[in-house]
Each structure stands twice: as C-alpha cells, then as structure tokens.
Target: Tyrosine--tRNA ligase
Amino acid sequence: LTGPGCFFPPRLIVRLQIQSTPSIMADQLSPEEKFTLITRNLQEVLGEEKLKQVLQERELKVYWGTATTGKPHVAYFVPMSKIADFLRAGCEVTVLFADLHAYLDNMKAPWELLELRVKYYEQVIKAMLESIGVPLQKLRFIKGTDFQLSREYTLDVYRLSSMVTEHDAKKAGAEVVKQVEHPLLSGLLYPGLQALDEEYLQVDAQFGGVDQRKIFTLAEKYLPSLGYAKRAHLMNPMVPGLTGAKMSSSEEESKIDLLDSKEDVKKKLKKAFCEPRNIQNNGVLSFVKHVLFPLRGEFCIKRDPKWGGDKVYTGFEEVEKDFAEEMIHPGDLKASVEAALNQLLDPIRKKFESPELRKLTNSAYPDPSKTKAGGKGAKTGGGGGEDGELVPSRLDIRVGKVISVEKHPDADSLYLEKIDVGEPEPRTVVSGLVAYVSQEDLQDRMVLVLCNLKPQKMRGIESQAMLLCASVEGEPRKVEPLDPPEGSSPGERVFVEGYESEKPDEKLNPKKKVWEKLQVDLKISDECVGQWKDKKLLTKLGHITCKTLKGGNIS
Model:
C-alpha cells in the first residue's frame, strides 16, 4: 500500500525505545552493507542505483503502508521482519495506516469502522514489532486521512486523474484491488492515490509485496508527469497461506490470526498444506524462510530421538533440501514452526488481554452473525428494508432448474433461459454464458438464481432474475454456474451461515446498490465452497459449491 503525507501530526508520531539492540549498529555499516541488508530476501528491486546513490549521501527514507481492512495475521511478520532490516540498516521508516484506501477498495472497511480499525492496526503492529525486538527510533506512524484529504493532495488527485487512462488504472490495481464484475470508480482511484503518497511522504522508496508491482510501475510512469521524482520500489515475495494459496485476511482457513490461541494455532497448522517433498506453495516452509530465519538466524527441527533427534539449521537452503529429500517429516516441520510461532505470538496475546484492547478488537471487528437486520434505523419488511443493515439475508437466492435454454435472438453472446424457481411459472433469465457454458450443460441443470433484482431488459428481452456463477479473471476468463447440494429442489432458499432466520427484501432497490455492495464479499473458498465473509452459503441440504474455480468471485 502506501504511506502518509509530507507532514507528521505530533499526535500520530510514535517513538519507542529499543527492546533489544542488535550487535552491529547502523553507523558501523558501510553503504554497501546497508544496501545488502535492505535488499536481502526481496523478490525484486526497482531503482537499485538510486538506492545506492542515496546511501552514499545519507540514510534512506522508506515507507510501508497497510490498508486497515481485515485483521492482520501471521503473514504480517514477513513485512515486519523486513522493516526490522530497514531499521537496522539505519533507514527512516514510516508506517502508513491507509484507512482511505481500505474504504476505496470496494468498501472492505465500512466508513464508520475506519477510526476503530486504525487504532487496532496501530496497537497490533506495535505489538508485533515489540515481539521481534526491532530498533524503533526512526519508526513513525501516520494515518492516511490526516493528509489525503488536504486541498493540495486533492488537487493532485484531480491532476493525476486527467493523465491516467482507465486501462492503466484498472491494470495497476488488478492484483491488489478486489476484482468484481461491476467495479466501482473508487477502485480505479486507489492506485493513483498510492502513487501520490510517495511524494507526500517525501520518501526515497516504497516497500510492499510483489503483488503491488503494477501500482509501483504506475507511480514511476506518472509521478514525473506531475513534476515529482521517481522513487525506488522494494518488493517482498508473496508468501503462501496455509492452504497453499495467498494468505488472506478474508480466507479463514488460509491464515493464523495474531490473537489465535495455542490450540487454534495447532489445529490450523495441522490442516495446513505441507505435502512431503513438495517445496512449492508450501506456506509452512515459506514462514520458516521469510520470518524465522531473518529474525533468528537459525531454525530448530524438534523430533523424537528415534527419528534423528533435534537438529539446528543455520540456513534455509538446508531445511528446504532436507524436506525435499524427506529427511524432515511434515509433522515435525509443523510442530517446530508451531513452537517458534507461539513464541512470537505470546507477547501479542498478553498485550491484548487488557480489557481496553479486548473492547477495541470487538468494536473494530464486530461479529457479523450478531448483526440483525430490522434493528435500529431499519424499516420493517423483510431483510431490513431499503435503509436496513447491509446483510446477506436481504438477497433472495433460490435453487432453480433450467427448463429450457436457447441463444438470444439478437445477441450471440447471450442465452435466453426459462428457469423454475418454485413459482407457478418459470422465470425468463438472460445470461452472458455463451462463451463459457454449452447449451447442453445448462439444459436441465440445477443452478442458483438471485430472484429479487429489479427486472432489466437485455437486448429487448426482460430478464427477471440473475443466474449466479463462479468466475476467475485471466486469459482466458473462466466461469462456472454454482451448484446446489445434490437432491435440491427448485425454490429452496439459499442462505448464509448465521443469517438463516431473516427474510429477504421483496425487491432490491437499485439506487441503494445492495447487491453490488454485498457481492464484493461473495467468493469461492479453496475447497470450492461458496462463502460470504468466510460464512458458508447453504441450503437445508448442505453447501453451495462450484466444480473447479477455487478462490473465484461469485457474480
């Protein structure tokens, strides 16, 4: 992400004492040694010569930003360990709590929760840094909205908007901004704001994951057009989650929360993908490489003496080699990572035992299953009415059966379907599936249908519902209709776990964008199960699934 502006309000600048002093201080390092420390374990560096030039003259100014969306998880130790390298190399480091970005990214953080989530992030990231004992004299914290709403910044947003094409903005955010079928304008603004932050922070370099490379190259392309200097960019590799895919705050099974109990850590690691000899997309091995070795310089495999006893490794390559050759058993690797991880998490858990931080956690991340439609501020009538809570029970999703399917008479890319949704007459549905699903595969198929959208004419024929599919963007784009459980009947209601008792709206008001706002959190898990914010989509017979599109969106 990106960082704060050209000034630092005193109330937001945090200076902490060193918890543990490294044996070699920054002023004892040569510029070449500092460069090596700054760039070690990175996947890519853009602007190496600029970094070397600055280091010959003065200390480097770097910033790392994080959008205050879902709860930080253990993968955050990866950038934290790299920030430790920056600080030990004498860099001046700024941490940006990018609250405005969190809102712009398809409203991953509701406006009313932004302030609470910034406070939570500040507390938990400080606790992480304290737990790994990094030097903190040159570390500063700042909140995005404290400078991104200024007159000067806003004018630069407009100036940049007059230069950046829609294509470039969409491409830049493709791997960072949540991708949906009907993207909001806010998602197109996001990459430009991140680019501008480099200037308003007055830094030499921005640090982030390699998934942000396209945003970094957009910054390099357009900041000089505004008369601002091109910055260097430091990129960490993307660390796999426990399921083998990217570790994500929104994928419960893929990550370990910083406040998870020891029992939860054991349970999640036990289920983690760690196939014998497989060193690709192995989240457990990656954690050893990118967190434990940089922080500790060694790693101990603990095992029964009859299997060789404990062994201390001083380099990751040897660990990887032994795992690939089955000299390390996955169970021993998981148990050893569990012990090391709990040592990192214990100080964080202890800090968050205080009543104040427990209250902050619950306020910043309220349990969605306890949010009831029809509560305060909601009108009567199913699902919370026009001004009700934004909960998934407002969607009237039903099981349907495709009775007939034919090509739209006036559009080659559209199908015209008749779908039985448990009403006296089947509904007419127009869907753009010609390029993805054959007529034979749709005929007589059980599907999922969103039934309370406002009917809309598509090339002259009114579509009375929407056939729901999983999709994965790419070349080529892949689309699959969602599957209800075996034995389902037309008209059976689909609900989100925890929202079974609420009634859907009779009709969704298109002006309120209820479907669009809820849809951004509908996705497919790595087990091919439909979810909304980690809560499963169900009927009375079981889970909603798709055949192959793990991690896809639902639309």
Notes: Residues 221 and 230 are 8 Å apart (CA to CA). Residues 330-351 form the longest helix (22 residues). The first strand starts at residue 44 and ends at 46.
